[in-house]
């Protein structure tokens, strides 16, 4: 089995060292580079073709958000998945991170097993959005002027939604609710494989990099409207 190639991007050398020891202790993954700022992270992503980048949001110079945008915009790096590292799980930059192309985010205080699982989840192309993180994402959309579905990005996505089948739209709504393929399969009384097929087709039609992007698109297009509890 080819190990998952992991790139560490954080301005704190001590934290990078701790992450390296943890990641390299796993037989199915290895650290292929360390970056102290966003510009270095982008350069290393290109030279190492890492599978997953653990990206700190706040770094001097080019921050993690800008670096994520650059990586996501590079066609040669389409297979690179980015997990944003935040001090707090619900971060003010969460929505921007996901829009920029991140697969999800993780609090820096996460347990070692959570970090390793996050790398595996991201490498598999899944979204890394915990219930608390999803609530934060929805709250951010609620706080935006005009609401979801009314901006230029929302209008563009609304047009693309017309290409989805009824079932694909149904699955997209479930994905936006933070449900896994198995949970969606139970809810719609279909097989998990069928759900995965619908998710992949929706991603292709909507130009989404991964599942996290589907969540953003569902809200930006207005297909899913956040409810105030």
Your description of this structure?
- It is a single chain.
- This protein is an alpha/beta fold and 229 residues long.
- The protein is 52% helix and 12% strand.
- It has eleven helices and five strands.
- Helix 4 links the parallel strand 4 (81-86) and strand 5.
- Helix 9 crosses helix 10 (192-206).
- The N and C termini lie far apart (46 Å).
Task: State the secondary-structure class.
Answer: alpha/beta
In percent terms, what proportion of residues is strand? 5-15%
Helical content (DSSP H or I, runs of 4+)? 40-55%
What distance lies between the first and last C-alpha atoms, to the nearest angstrom? 46 Å
- Low-pLDDT runs of 5+ residues are none
The run of helices and strands is: EHEHEHEHEHHHHHHH
In the sheet with the most strands, the strands line up as: 2-1-3-4-5
Mean pLDDT: 84
Number of H- or I-type helical stretches: 11
Q: Nearest-angstrom radius of gyration?
A: 17 Å
* Largest sheet composition: 5 strands, parallel
Strand count: 5
């Amino acid at each position: 089995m080819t190990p998952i190639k992991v790139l560490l991007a954080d301005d704190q050398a001590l934290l990078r060292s701790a992450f390296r020891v943890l990641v390299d202790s796993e037989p199915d993954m290895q650290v292929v580079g360390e970056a102290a700022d966003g510009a270095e992270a982008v350069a290393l992503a290109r030279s190492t073709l890492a599978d997953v980048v653990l990206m700190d949001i706040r770094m001097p110079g080019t921050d993690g958000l800008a670096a994520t945008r650059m990586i996501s915009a590079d066609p040669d790096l389409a297979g690179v998945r980015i997990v944003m590292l935040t001090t707090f799980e619900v971060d003010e930059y969460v929505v921007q991170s996901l829009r920029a192309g991140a697969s999800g985010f993780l609090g820096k205080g996460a347990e070692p097993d959570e970090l390793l699982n996050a790398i595996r989840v991201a490498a598999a192309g899944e979204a890394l959005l915990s219930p608390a993180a999803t609530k934060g994402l929805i709250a951010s959309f609620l706080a935006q002027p005009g609401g979801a579905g009314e901006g230029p990005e929302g209008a563009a996505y609304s047009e693309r939604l017309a290409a989805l089948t009824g079932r694909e739209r149904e699955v997209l709504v479930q994905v936006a609710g933070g449900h896994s393929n198995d949970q969606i399969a139970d809810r719609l009384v279909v097989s998990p494989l069928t759900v995965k097929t619908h998710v992949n087709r929706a991603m292709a039609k909507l130009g989404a990099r991964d599942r996290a992007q589907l969540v953003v698109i569902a809200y930006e297009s207005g297909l899913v409207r956040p409810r105030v509890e």
